[in-house]
Please model this.
Amino acid sequence: MDWLRDAPFGWAYLFLFLLAMARANTTYWIGRGVVAGVSHSRFERFLEGPIYLRARRFVARWGILAVPLSFLTVGIQTAVNASAGMSRMPLSRYLPAVVAGCLMWALIYATVGMAVVYAALAVGWWWIALGVVLIVAAALLWIRYRRRNG
Model:
């Protein structure tokens, strides 16, 4: 990762953009393959789970804008791209939307996103693990509270 930190902004941005394009388009084509009957049992379980259902609602609400907007979210980006593939979104609509999303994602990570990653690495992994455990515990307690008092 040092090479990415030391790279000029343009090269880092290009690398992150291409990385996002590869990931998003691979997920799109896996989604299309599942609909076409290609057996990917590992992916089928994921695409029928709660995250995918949330992504389907997101796509239903936002339409074509769901693809670039998903790159600004945490947790449903992959599911939205898979949903676009499973719904057979035409490439003439998907490609411009995914390019816009990947451009935004690369800009975020080439600037503040990677700074956060490097700061977390400098602090140490055990602090990160502790923070994640505390956040997950707080989320679980909140969900339990909402279900009981909701």
In short: The helical segments are 2-6, 9-35, 41-47, 50-62, 66-70, 77-86, 91-123, 125-149. The chain is about 85% helix and 0% strand. The two ends are 45 Å apart (CA to CA).
